[in-house]
Amino acid sequence: MKVTLLVVGKTTDKHIIALVDEYLARLKHYVPVEVELIPELRQTKALSEAQQKEQEGAMILERIQAGDRVVLLDERGTERRSIEFASWLQKKMLSGTKRLLCIVGGPYGFAPSVYDRADEKISLSQMTLSHQMIRLLFVEQVYRAMTILNGEPYHHE
């Protein structure tokens, strides 16, 4: 199974970029993981929040491939402890899913059409986090899950 993190907008903080790259390098040992970028919309001042979500949603839907398991990283999604997330990820790997597509939306969230296409939603926190931080937290949690599944001493409980 391949894990793809699809994100709207680029990361500008060099420290976050370096940490995301560090975890992506660590993950190569376990599972293929990639980050795909959807460019930020331009001239958004003339657009309403709904229009922005619809335009971003159209770009997101174009990236979904047949057979993808689509998971939205959404504040209203299911929260899991790290061990539960590892078990969830393992079930996805064993289910024959070819690509697990995890999506971070734009600043206003997701369009209704994206919610309709999603297979499920997960939340990394009840707190509001920046889209840049979500990328780092997600790849770290995938790495943590892989070490849990392999019985390696990264996660302590």
Question: Which tags fit this structure?
Answer:
Alpha/beta knot; about 160 residues; five-stranded parallel β-sheet; alpha/beta; globular
Describe this structure in words.
It is a single chain. The protein has helices at 14-27, 49-63, 82-94, 112-117, 131-149, and strands spanning 2-8, 33-38, 69-79, 99-104, 120-123. By secondary structure, it is α/β, with parallel strands linked by helices. The protein has a single domain, classed as Alpha/beta knot (3-Layer(aba) Sandwich). It has a five-stranded parallel sheet with strand order 2-1-4-3-5. Helix 1 (14-27) runs parallel beside helix 5 and helix 3 (82-94) packs across helix 5. The longest helix has 19 residues, at 131-149. The model has no long low-confidence stretch (mean pLDDT 95).
